[in-house]
Amino acid sequence: MENFTSSNTTFGTWPDHSLPYKLISTLIVLTICALGIVGNVMVILVVLTTKHMRTPTNCYLVSLAAADLMVLVAAGLPSVADSLYGSWLFGRVGCLCITYFQYLGINASSCSITAFTVERYIAICHPIRAQSLCTYTRAKRIILGVWVTTSLYCVMWFYLADIEELVYEDATIVSCAYKVSRNLYLPIYFFDFGVFFVLPLTLSTVLYGLIARILFLNPLPKTKSKNGHDGVYSGNKTNGLKSSSQCSSTTAASRRQVTKMLAVVVILFAVLWMPYRTLVVVNSFLQEAYLDTWFLLFCRTCVYLNSAINPVIYNAMSQKFRAAFKRLCRCGPRVQAKQAAYSVALTYSVAKETSMIESTEHFSTEMEDLTEGPEDLTEEPN
């Protein structure tokens, strides 16, 4: 992960051979990594093995789970060995590969979060376009593009990292370090920091603000039908009126719940990465970097926790993920997944009302993919 420029080591650690530090750091990091690895593997499995869970948004969540899994394996587990032995154990090849996969996981997770944020914005704020843009096939292509691009971008770390020997208290300690000078590394780091942290969070803030305006400030308008009943759309077919009227109230509430869940993922990404990112930025301008081992442990723990907590969020805020996790663990009865209810687009155009009702079945799973994904629109918010 990002180096603290004074020590110039990839994990940003300074050896602490005290027994309390070894025990506490090992216990905390190993516990978070174990739970996170299990949780992210379960997310990937339930989406890939359950047909009704294969939706556009769930594709992005699988990409995020794979990236978080990579961070836990490439950053979390090696840090346990680093804490126990106080020296790098994996050699030069291990240093290059682990550094590469650390950055790949971090950058891919950031891009995946940005991707599902944009997808939710299109689905809610531009529902007509969502019929062609928010599809399962397009989501897979975007994810492939994200991983190919970030994989190529991170190749540079093979040329920037190497093992380094440090003399500390009359002992020689091997570390995985960046071999470039501080003046050369700082522009690279700040570019990475801006593109994969500041820019995604800024974009997410703007888009979720626009989504909130639609969901919370502009409720679906109601029109009077010929028989005097309230409905979102009016038309000649009684069944169409009844269907749109019944699903309109649950659609708005469920969309709010789905948006809250995805917003929580973004907020936790920002909050849990903030200590580490801030410390690296501050140390970049200090003559003598702040390298308190306990505070560094806190910063790294926040990073690992961010990669481990998303499956917990899905389980807490999505009944479908909860049921899928239970089926995967064989902890609950195997029941058929509930069919997703028809949903209607958030549009105020009276001229398109009839066509929207007739085409609801065609694009409900494309535009409202979370009806078959993180949240069923027929469910009441938790």
From TrEMBL:
Domain of life of the organism encoding this protein: Eukaryota
Biased composition (Acidic residues): 366-382
PROSITE patterns found in the cross-reference section: G_PROTEIN_RECEP_F1_1, G_PROTEIN_RECEP_F1_2
Residue span, G-protein coupled receptors family 1 profile domain: 39-314
Pfam family, one: 7tm_1
Keyword Transmembrane helix part of the UniProt annotation: yes
Primary site of residence: membrane
Biological process according to GO: phospholipase C-activating G protein-coupled receptor signaling pathway
GO function terms (MF aspect): thyrotropin-releasing hormone receptor activity
TM helices/strands, residue ranges: 23-48, 60-80, 100-122, 142-160, 188-216, 258-274, 294-317
Subcellular localization: Membrane
Record's keyword terms, sorted: G-protein coupled receptor, Membrane, Receptor, Transducer, Transmembrane, Transmembrane helix
Disordered as annotated region, ranges: 362-382
One of the record's GO cellular component terms: membrane
Family according to the record: Belongs to the G-protein coupled receptor 1 family.
Its job: Receptor for thyrotropin-releasing hormone (TRH). Upon ligand binding, this G-protein-coupled receptor triggers activation of the phosphatidylinositol (IP3)-calcium-protein kinase C (PKC) pathway.
PANTHER family, alphabetized: THYROTROPIN-RELEASING HORMONE RECEPTOR
Protein name as it appears in the record: Thyrotropin-releasing hormone receptor
